Amino acid sequence: MSMPWFVSERPKPEMSTRPISVGCLIYAQMDQIDFTGPFEILSRMPDTAVTVVGKELGPIQDVQGLQLTPDVSIAEVGTFDVLVVPGGYGQQPLMHDEEVLGLIRKQVQAERLLFSVCTGALLCGAAGVLAGRQATTHWSARHLLPHYGAALVDARVVVDGNIISAAGVTAGLDAALALVSLLRGEAAAQEIQLAIEYAPNPIFDSGTPEKAPAEVLQSFQRRYESIGTTREAEAIRYAEKEADPESHQQRKALIS
Amino acid sequence: MSMPWFVSERPKPEMSTRPISVGCLIYAQMDQIDFTGPFEILSRMPDTAVTVVGKELGPIQDVQGLQLTPDVSIAEVGTFDVLVVPGGYGQQPLMHDEEVLGLIRKQVQAERLLFSVCTGALLCGAAGVLAGRQATTHWSARHLLPHYGAALVDARVVVDGNIISAAGVTAGLDAALALVSLLRGEAAAQEIQLAIEYAPNPIFDSGTPEKAPAEVLQSFQRRYESIGTTREAEAIRYAEKEADPESHQQRKALIS
After folding, report:
1. Residues in chain B closer than 8 A to A195 (CB atoms)
2. I need a labelling partner for A81 at 20 to 30 A (CA). Which of A196, B81, B98, B124 fits?
3. Are B173 and A178 within 8 A, CB to CB?
């Protein structure tokens, strides 16, 4: 099993007694628990206000049809102490969305915390903020991180300075708990874990490609082949553009 | 650690290749992940349609302010193959809500599957359907189950015939995975587990009162004392009413 979490040499997020603002991006065709998992935990962090941010006001549907409604639109917000960027199928259509990428860049430029879950890391990559950083993402997309200039770390949760990344989907729960422990201390995180009875005990151990039965892995790979191919082509395009000195300078100007 | 799941002597839910309908009840002040956890897994079950059911149409807010919108109102629905009943603070105001209790009773009368998460089990208890059944609920409410005629089982997931109950909050993920394995087979459940990278690895082991540090448990107990007292008083009222032969006959007539 990979490490529960990896904390890099960069200064990690600091304990604080100030009020904390958390913004959670939501968008059509996302994977809802990438967001509702961290929401469950971060909304219980002491003295914390969570705001749900949509591209537009009005409800969206997640990839399985769950209706979620933002509190505000991107146009109305600046930065947050923590910005949560979930993943899922709907991440792909946003890879060139300047409004979404701009929200992510602003957050990192302001040296505030960026928290990606699952393929939300690819959106962060497309925003250019993962260059030179250590990160993780859904296991099926990990090999794509280097195209965005990031170094893959084999951990369920990666904390690299102000960028926290969670592996696939349900790893957002573990990452959120880790983040609470950094920002508000271990006891605060442990009390939330107790409140939500987070003593996971699945009847199978099939949550990673190393542990899943071979035929289960093959079935998954057939089902996800199309989105996998699309994501890979996108990552290669990004890397090729970055290899061009002029494009690289343009992107660098955007994020610094 | 308690067992991952307990399956009683009653005939357990059967494998099926028929389409499956799942209804998920949502209500104000509920705990959203009691619902979004099972939704994540059950919506990925092969050939399954999930419908989100509210008391009324129109959005509700969970206990931390997350906006959730039902697809239909209770008045519009009958029974489902599976009915998910989540818990949370908002369960208490519904303990005498005949519309909600009626939805739960209809499900059990039709011998279809009832799936409670966390204190959703107390709603099932109030509906009268847990009498003589084995069940579990959030650890802070387990001692209340006998007041509803149920036998408490120390397991994260309890399958007693057509009634499946999950322990607190995040146990809904484990219970949903177990239910998929029963209805669609192990490989289907394992593939969902792989897709959502459900290989949980929290940095602490503080999710049960036995494991949490003493001061964390005490802090939780202070914070939840009020709702705990209210739930206990409600359970005792129920038991006293059931002890009255006339009330008992009335309730029995409702559920048979």
Report:
1. 168-169, 220, 224
2. A196
3. no
How far off is chain B from A249, nearest CA to CA, in Å? 36
Domains and CATH numbers, chain A: 3-255 (3.40.50.880)
Task: Report chain A's mean pLDDT, rounded to a whole number.
Answer: 96
* Segments of A55-196 assigned E as strands: 60-61, 67-68, 72-73, 82-85, 113-117, 134-135, 151-152, 157-160, 163-166
Note the pLDDT tens digit of each residue in B3-16.
Answer: 789 999 999 999 99
pLDDT for residue B207: 97
- The pLDDT value given to residue A218: 97
What tens digit of pLDDT does each residue of A240-255 get?
Answer: 999 888 888 887 888 7
Nearest to B167 among A181, A194, A197 (CB): A197
Q: Which residues of A are less than 8 Å from B200 in CB distance?
A: 170, 173-174, 198, 200, 202, 207
Q: Is residue B124 flagged as an active site residue?
A: no
Q: Is B176 helix (H, G, I), strand (E, B) or coil?
A: helix
- ipTM given for this complex: 0.96
SS3 of A161-216: the string is: CCEEEECCCCHHHHHHHHHHHHHHCHHHHHHHHHHCCCCCCCCCCCCCCCCCCHHH
- Separation in Å, CA of B59 to nearest CA in chain A: 9
A185 contacts: CB under 8 Å, gap ≥ 6: A15
* CA atoms of A194 and A41, how far apart (whole Å): 11
- CB-based contact B203 A5, cutoff 8 Å: yes
Ranges of residues in chain B with a pLDDT under 70 are 1-2
With 70 as the cut, is the pLDDT of residue A2 above it?
A: no
| CB contact (8 A) between residue B203 and residue A174 | yes
Question: Which of B232, B41, B180, B34 has its CA nearest to residue A40?
Answer: B34
Tokens for B47? 């050939």
Which chain B residue has its CA at the smallest distance from A197's CA?
A: B207
Which amino acid would we find at residue B185?
G
Interface test with A, best of B204, B211, B220 (most A CBs within 10 A): B204
Q: What is the Rg, in whole angstroms, of the alpha carbon atoms belonging to chain A?
A: 17
pLDDT value for B2? 67
Q: How far apart are CA B50 and CA A192, in angstroms?
A: 29
Tens digits of residue pLDDT in B24-47 = 999 999 999 999 999 999 999 999
**Per the structure block, which two tokens stand in for A197?**
């009875």
pLDDT tens, position by position, A110-134: 999 999 999 999 999 999 999 999 9
